[in-house]
């Protein structure tokens, strides 16, 4: 699905960055902000809708992730504003500009949710890595911000994957391509 490309060139930006380059960073950070706001809501959805024997472990594991993701979103929004952009944090902006679908799992077993969440983290981490490469060509401060966030997101995925990994190191959901498929495979583990 192709989204409308807007000219996000600011009227001013931080010293040492051309306005057009800042506009590219603003566009990149705008999508990171949407992704982080979406992840925050998805994590709370999982927190509220997880059931089964692993309920309390997953329920308690998710909240610190929610808190850190909210902090990440704040950092991205503030960097976006410092570059001269507008941090669009409304649900309408997120829904109209995102390039992904809503999280597909409702009330489900903890392991099923974690299996689906693993795919969410994979997509997000891949996008952050792409953003780091682009930001690195323009601005080391924005690149550094994204690298710091990448480390935390990868750690959160590791926490999730620890529940999905067998003793030989294989992920039960390694061939899943869609959240529903991953959740079904995860439910078989639970």
Automatic annotation (TrEMBL):
Residues 28-167 form the Ferritin/DPS domain. Pfam families: Ferritin. InterPro entries: DPS_DNA-bd, DPS_DNA-bd_CS, Ferritin-like, Ferritin-like_SF, Ferritin_DPS_dom. It comes from the Bacteria. Gene3D superfamilies: 1.20.1260.10. Belongs to the Dps family. This is DNA starvation/stationary phase protection protein. It comes from Streptomyces lannensis.
């Amino acid at each position: 699905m192709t989204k409308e490309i807007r000219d996000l060139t600011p009227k001013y930006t931080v010293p040492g960055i051309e306005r057009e380059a800042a506009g590219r960073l603003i566009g990149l950070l705008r999508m990171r902000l949407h992704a982080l706001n979406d992840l925050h809501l998805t994590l709370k959805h999982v927190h509220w809708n997880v059931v089964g024997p692993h309920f309390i472990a997953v329920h308690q594991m998710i909240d610190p992730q929610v808190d850190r993701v909210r902090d990440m979103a704040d950092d991205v929004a503030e960097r976006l504003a410092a570059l001269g952009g507008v941090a669009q944090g409304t649900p309408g902006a997120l829904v109209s500009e995102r390039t992904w679908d809503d999280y597909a799992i409702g009330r489900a077993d903890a392991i099923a949710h974690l299996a689906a969440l693993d795919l969410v983290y994979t997509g997000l981490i891949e996008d952050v890595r792409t953003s780091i490469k682009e930001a690195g060509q323009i601005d080391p401060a924005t690149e550094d911000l994204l690298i710091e966030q990448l480390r935390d997101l990868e750690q959160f995925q590791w926490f999730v994957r620890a529940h999905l990994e067998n003793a030989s190191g294989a992920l039960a959901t390694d061939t899943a391509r869609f959240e529903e498929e991953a959740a079904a495979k995860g439910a078989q583990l639970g």
